[in-house]
Specification:
This protein has 136 residues and is mainly beta. The protein is built from one helix and nine strands.
Length: 136
């Protein structure tokens, strides 16, 4: 079932970040470790799983210097502190991502015939958790 993204929210700590127009998804990936040896079978390389990386979450929206959430994102960029985050999808999905992140980018932009905007980049630190709805 397809669901509109309207209503999706980013919580930075417990504070919602207002006026977002886009929340990028987590970009999960895993490294591999080559364990091929001289007695590997069949002439093919062999691998085992290595470290995983949850990537980055990009956010963008309309700049509002009075929004506590946007201010918290900027403050975390300045401090370098790791912050708990949560992406809450629309209620009809009942799903969310929970993760810790370091803010690695924050920018504002003012373009002719556009609203003043901002963008941020959150580097996920550690293992994220995808919360799925429970079935009765």
């Amino acid at each position: 079932m397809a669901v509109r993204a309207v209503g999706t929210q980013l919580l930075f700590g417990t504070t919602p970040v207002a006026e977002l127009s886009s929340i990028g998804g987590l970009e999960l990936s895993a490294d591999t470790i080559d364990v091929t040896s001289l007695d590997s079978d069949g002439g093919y390389r062999q691998f085992i799983g290595g470290f995983k990386d949850a990537g980055e979450v990009s956010i963008s929206g309309f700049f509002n210097p009075e929004d506590d959430g946007q201010a918290a994102v900027y403050a975390a960029f300045e401090s370098g502190a790791t912050q708990s985050c949560k992406i809450v999808f629309p209620a009809s999905l009942g799903a969310s991502w929970e993760f810790s992140a370091v803010v690695t980018g924050f920018s504002t932009s003012a373009e002719l015939e556009d609203a003043v905007s901002f963008e941020g980049t959150l580097k996920v630190s550690g293992k994220p958790t995808l919360k799925l709805p429970t079935t009765p």
